[in-house]
Structures are given as structure tokens and as C-alpha cells.
């Protein structure tokens, strides 16, 4: 790191212009070492478009590597916070300090002005979300709007790197023609490579800096080469060059589909727990003794703007039926209603009609500690409960349940209120301090195997059973000689749990 200031960079880039035909990395005739030097000296300005949960950590790592990064976001509050050296992304170890340091040193700046940043930058990194439209087709509008910004400043020799997850063929068939037509450059005058994020919330900096090999695939060989130069510097791990951008796009989507399909299988198996009278979680954990078996964890559904979205980047985009991917997606999407079915049955057994019952949902975000609610299973649970005319409350330390159709309750208020039931959807660590013994007995459906209510008066139903071997209703049925194989008996029995 040289600590070069942006002003130094500008003048050095100008001085070089007479001897170097292009300032960028694509199609340059500089040696690889000279390219690396220019990148790490800050002589190649970098723009990072999208400063969200992954974009801000990525921009910060680009800044610590190159010393000359402009971050762009459409949200003025995000830009204002970063300009003040503050991270608006919570739960990422080291990020607040890194952002403060990079901004303070003048290595990272932020703006809402995409075209101006594009004009000043020679490497453009895209890390905005790709969502779905109402028909579940990929919605490329945000990525294309960033491409419009980049195109206004795109110069010969520039390299565009896309880290946003994309449906395969998007770089080749959509973005390259889009950038070319909007910039009036020929496709072989600029580089375009897909280099997917292999990161997760909570470990973003570690992952970006090199936890896994970095996959790089360009629309042509020169784009792959140029992008590999960048990630050789950014990542401590190996750079895995694949044949082309479409292969790189497929790698990322396949990783997500693998996860969705395997969670779908776990969710299917977990629904056998009542009928078999076992803890399916115990069976899964034990099956996973074998390295060839990697069954996932069952739960109330699959949330976030990654895993539930990526299967749709293939479904309807191909002429193939994709029956396995489709079935898993359906199974996962139905889990919130499975959870509410179980809840309704347990309430029935306790003599309470779900219509008019008061139910509190624990955890609205899709993952503990991550402020993201897109596709959260909690939203499906709230919808299902509302459709069945239950009165729904919610607790979440990161978001306001009122924004999602549930009356807000604080953890400390739980004991003062009286609920017919609770559903654990997302086990934020704050829930560890709930004193269940201080709360009036109720039905508790635990979707995540995170509460043990055996020593309480609550009527617990653990989806799929507990890892320690307790079937969904604990040991009570076994102790009382309930016929485990008869699911009808199980669902109709009224003495299977503590009365509430
Ligand atoms: N979050 C994860 O765990 C994760 C992991 C791996 C990959 N990804 C992928 O990374 C990408 C980004 O995800 P994220 O979690 O950072 O998203 P995010 O929703 O947290 O942040 C997106 C940011 O982009 C900004 N933005 C929207 N439109 C813009 C525009 N036109 N120009 C500039 N900025 C704009 C938003 O204001 C927001 O700050 C997605 O493609 C996602 O699939 C995410
Ligand atoms: C572990 C990891 O690196 N993941 C990443 C993932 O991050 P993520 O934040 O989306 O988190 P996940 O852990 O995948 O969970 C998604 C949903 O599935 C539920 N779930 C999960 C596992 C399970 O066994 N049973 C479940 O029910 C869970 O509760 C949640 O609702 O997406 C990124 C984007 O591309 C990828 O980089 C990457 O795969």
C-alpha cells in the first residue's frame, strides 16, 4: 500500500497517458507486474456500484487493496453514512473499523452520482441485487440501470466486473450488448467478467479476502485475464478461471440451487417425524456421520434474497423441466403453511381454535442477526396466521414487526402478555434471554430446534424433533405409550402435551 491520494492518482494517470495507450487493464500492453503496480498504487480508479450488505465490504476491501475507490449507491442515507466513515451494515466483524480507516485515509469515497464515478473510473464493479418480478422471472432492471451509468463513462480498456448473481448468459447476451450500445464502444474495446460473490452475512470480510477460491469468467479470454489480475491482488486464495462468463454465472446459481434442493429434501424428511415417531433431526445428524451424506437442516422455510431466488434464474429460463429444482422450491415455499398447520393442530389439541387465537412470531428477518426480510419464512407464517384469522404479534430485535403485519412486542413484555401460542421462526441470540417459565403456558412451535421447554408447562412442538433425539412433542408420547406409527392418533390425541 502506498497511501497514494486520489489527487496524486489523477495527475499520475494523466502523465502516463502519453506513453500508455489505455489506462485500464483490458487489452493493455503493459506487463502483468506493471498492471498489478498500477492497480495497487491506485493509478486505476475503481468504482463499486451498490454499497449494501455485500457491496460495502467489497468496496472496503477494494479500497484497502487499491487505495482509490468510489462507492456508488442510490440511497443518499447510505452514501452520507459512508462519507462520514460509518458502516450502515451491522453484524460484520471488522467492517466498521475498515470503513472508518479507508474513508479517513481518502482511499474510499461514496457518491450517489453513478455517471460521474463511471467517468472517473477504469474498473467498474457491480454488486447490486438481482430480484424477481411478479411472475418470478429474473428482474434485471437494477443491474441494467447500473450498466447505463457505467456506459456513460465507459472508455476503451475499461474492465467491468459483475459480482451480482445473474442468470446464466446475462453477461454475454444482455450486458455486453447493452454496454456496447449505450457507450458506442465496440465489444472488444472493453472487458466484461463475471466474478461471483462467495460470501455470507457475518463473514463478509473474511470471505472476500480469500476464504474460498475466486471464480473468474470473462466474455472473452482477455476479460478473464484482466479480472484474474484484479482478484490475484484482492484475494489471498487462488483465482479459479473458468471457460467463460456463462460458466461463472452457472457456478454461482448452481451453488444456490444445490442448497435450496438439499434444504427442500430436509424439509420433506422432517415432515415424516410425526408419522415415524422419531426426531428426524437426530436421524439427519447421524446419517451425516458418513462424509458422502450432507443432509441439511429442516426449518420453517428458506429466506433471504439469494437462495430462494436463484432457482428461478434457471426455471422458466430453460426448455428443460427441472423437476427436482422445481419440487424443492415448492417444498421450501410451502414450509410456512406446514408450520401453521402444525400450530393449528396443536392448538386444536389444546382446545383452542386458531380463529381468534393470539400468536406471537419470534424472529421476522430471514436469518439471526441479519437485517433482511426479503422472502423471510416469517412473512409467510404471518400471512398464513392472518388468513386463518389468528391475532398475530411479532418480536424482532432488528426490524419493526408492525411493518410486516404483526403487532410489535418486546422480549421483556412477553411475560406480561398472555398468548395462545408462539412460533420460533428466526432464533436471534436476543431470544436466549427469554424466561419461558415466567410466561403463561401456551403452545410453542419451534421451527429451528432452539428452545427446550421440557422443564416448563408449555406445550412444545419441535418441527422435525430435536437434535438430542426428542421427537416433535418430546418424550411425552413415548412415556404415555402413544402408538408412534399412527399419525392420526398423534394428531388427534389431546393428552400428548402439557395442558395449556
Ligand atoms: N447478502 C448476501 O449474503 C450475499 C451473498 C452472496 C452474494 N450476494 C449477491 O450480492 C448482490 C448484492 O447483495 P447485497 O446483499 O449486498 O444487497 P443489499 O440489498 O444489501 O444492497 C444492495 C445495495 O444496492 C443499492 N442499489 C440499488 N440500486 C442501485 C443502483 N441502481 N445503483 C447503485 N446502487 C444501487 C441499494 O441501495 C443497496 O444499498 C446480489 O446479487 C446478491 O445475490 C449476496
Ligand atoms: C452458508 C452460506 O454461505 N450461505 C450463503 C447464502 O447465504 P444466506 O444468507 O442466504 O444463508 P443460508 O445459510 O444459505 O440460508 C438461507 C435460508 O435457508 C435456511 N436454511 C439454511 C440452511 C439449512 O440447512 N436449512 C435452512 O432452512 C436459512 O434459515 C435461511 O432462511 O447465500 C449466499 C448468497 O448467494 C451464498 O453466498 C451462500 O450460499
UniProtKB/TrEMBL annotation:
The keyword Zinc does not apply. Residues 360-453 form the UDP-glucose/GDP-mannose dehydrogenase C-terminal domain. Residues 1-37, 459-500 are annotated as: Disordered. One of its GO terms (biological process) is polysaccharide biosynthetic process. Keywords: NAD, Oxidoreductase. Belongs to the UDP-glucose/GDP-mannose dehydrogenase family. It is an enzyme of class 1 (oxidoreductase). The lineage of its organism: Archaea, Methanobacteriati, Methanobacteriota, Stenosarchaea group, Halobacteria. It comes from the Archaea. This is UDP-N-acetyl-D-mannosamine dehydrogenase. It comes from Natrinema halophilum. Residues 1-12, 489-500 have a biased composition (Polar residues).
